[in-house]
Protein 1
Amino acid sequence: MGETASNEKAPKTDFIKGLKAEFNKIIWPDKDTLTKETAVVVVSTVILGIVIAALDLIIKFGLNIVLG
C-alpha cells in the first residue's frame, strides 16, 4: 500500500533558538511612544462611539416620525 511519512521533527532546541532570534528582532516602542499611541486609540474610540450613538438617535428619531 502507501508508504508512511517519517515523523522526524526538528529538535526543540532549534525551535527555541529560532524563537529567541525572532524576539531579538522586535523593536519595542519606548514608554512615551506607547503612551501617546494608547491615548490616540482611546480618544478615537470614544469619538467613534459618540458618532455612532448620535447616528443611532437620529435614525431612531427619523423612524419614529415616519412610522408615527
Protein 2
Amino acid sequence: MRKHYATIKDIANALNISFATVSRALRDAYDVKAETRELVLAKAAELNYRPNVNAKGLAQHRSYNLGVVLPGITNYYFSTVITGIQEVAYNSGYNLILYVTNDSAERERDMIRNLALSSLDGLLVCVSSDSDDGSGFQAMIDEGIPVVFFDRVAEQVNTSRVVQDDYNGAFEATEHLVQNGYRKIAHIAGPEGLAFTRARLKGYKDALKKHGLPLKQEWIIYSGFSQAHGEQDALNLWKCRSRPDAIFAVNDRKAVGAMLALKKLGVEVGKTVGVVGFTNDPVASIISPSLTTIAEPAFEIGKISCQLLLNHIKKKRFDPKEVVLPGKLIVRESSLKV
C-alpha cells in the first residue's frame, strides 16, 4: 500500500497558521520568524511531509530534471564526471536522466530527436567520437533548452563548455618523454574529427618541434579509445621500418593496450620503450610497470559544467563561457629508463 505524505495544508491546519506562511517557512523566506520556521519544520517531520516536486515544477514552469548525454558510463573518467554533476544537481534540487550513446553518432541523433523536451530543464552533453555538426543541439538551444558541453564538444554550437587543457597536457606528456631520454616518440591518437584529438596532437607535435625531434606521419595513428584499439595501434607501429622508442597515448586505456602489446612483443616497457597516457585511470597505478599519465580533473569538470547549465537555466541571457581546466603530470615507471 502506498504511503501517505502530509501536505502543506496539513501542516498549516495542525499549527493553525496560513498556508502561505508554511510555504514561506519551508522555503526559508526572509520574512518568516526563526521560531515559526522551527515549528513548521518540526511539524513537517512529525507529519511525514515530503515536497511535491511535480507541483513545484508546474508552478515554476520547470521539471527539475537535467539530461546528461554521454558516450558511456563504464569507464573511470565518465563515472567521475557524473559524480561531480550529481553533487551539484542534488544540492540544487535537480534529478539526472542519463542518455548513453555507446559512442554512436547515429544513436546520439536518435536520442536528441526523440527527447521529451518538456521533461527537461537543460542538457549536459559529451558528444560521440563520430558526432556530426551539432545541428540537433543547436535546434534544442533555439527552442529554449539550455545545453552545456563537457570534454568532447560540438565546436559549431555557441554555448558554454568545460574541457581539460588538452594541448598543454599533451605538450607536457611528450616533453617529459624527451627529458627522460626518448627521442623517437609516436602518438596513438583518438578519432581524427574530435577537437581534443587535434589539440592533443598539436601539443605532441609542438613538443617535438621545440626539441628538434623527428615527426614521422607513420608514427601517428588514429583510432578509437579502447584498450583493444591501443593494443592494435602498438602492433601497427611495430610494423613500421623505423620503430619508435616511446608512445604517447591519447588516453590511459589505449596506453594500457599499447603496454600489453609491447609485452607480447618481448619489449620492456620503460627501459626500452617509454609510454605515457592521459586520464589517470585507477588502472594506471595497478598495471606493471605503473603508467605515467596526465591526470584529468574529471570531478571538477562535472561540477563546473552542471553549475554553468544551472546558470543558463536561471538566466536566459547568460553569456556562454568556456572553462579550461589544467591537468597534472603523474610520473610513474612506464616513462623511466632506469
Protein 3
Amino acid sequence: MDFELHSVPLLSRIGADRADQVRTDTDAAVAGWGDAALLRLDSRNQVMVADGRVLLGKAKDLADKPPHDAVFLGRIEDGRHVWAVRAPLEASDDPDLTAEVADLRRGGQLFDDVGAQLVSAAAALLNWHASARFSSVDGSPTKPIRAGWARVNPITGHEEFPRIDPAVICLVHDGGDRAVLARQTVWPERMYSLLAGFVEAGESFETCVAREIHEEIGLTVRDIRYLGSQPWPFPRSLMVGFHAVGDPDEPFAFNDGEIAEAEWFTRDEVRAALALGDWSSDSDSRLLLPGSVSIARVIIESWAQAG
C-alpha cells in the first residue's frame, strides 16, 4: 500500500520571502533596518501571538542598526525586513489585541504560515549561534556574518554555517490495515508515536530507516518510501518522513533500550485515537497520539485516511 501526506506539516509551510540575497548585501540589510519588523524570541523559544499572527515590534525601537547578534529572517508581504533577537517578550501596545505566549512545540497550530516560518528559522538560527561561538576547527572565537546566517573566524577567515541534524521518522505498516506504534521509555503510559532516529555519517536516509527500526524494535523493513520533511528546531533537527512495510509475524526486540513497548494497531484503532485529540487529551484510551505540530501526526493521519 502506498500513500502520500494529506497536508503540508505545520512547520513546513511557506510564508515569508527568505530574501537570501539580502544576507550578503550589508548595505541593503542596514538600510532596511529603519522600517524593519522585530521578532523577539525568549530563552525558552517562546514568542507572543495574537489571532494566529506572531507579534512583531519595530526594529528601530531596539537599536539604530542591527545588533551583532540579530538574525535576518526575510521579508513579509508588505515588503518590510524581519529580524529576530533573543530577548524578553514584550506585550502589544494595541488594546484591541489579546496576545498570548506560545512556542512551536506546544502551540504550532496557533501560527499562520508566515509566523510558523519566521519562528522556525529564528529558533534554529539563534539556537545555533548560542552553541557556535567558537570555531570547530581551532577553538578560536567566531563572530556572526551574513546577517546571522554564518559565523567567521576573524583571524583565518574560515566560515561556518548553521548545523542541521537530519533525522528519519517512519511509519511501519503491514501493507494492509495494521501499523506499528511505539512508546519510548521516558514517555508516560499510553503515549505512542512513530519510530525515529538520527542519520549517521556515511548513511542514506533509507539505510537509516532500516537500521533504526531494526535497532529499536527488531523488525526488518522493506519498500521504504519518502513522504515529506519538516524542520524541528529543538534545537536544530530536520525530520525526514517515510513509510515502510514490515512483517507482523516477526517478533519485537528492543535492542537499544530506547523503546519500552511497541504494538501493531489496526487502522480503526488509530482512527479512534486520532478522533480523541492528542497526548494532552484526558481520555482513558489505551492509545494517545502526537499533536498536530509534529510530522508524526500528519503521517499517521495520512495513513489512517488512505485505507
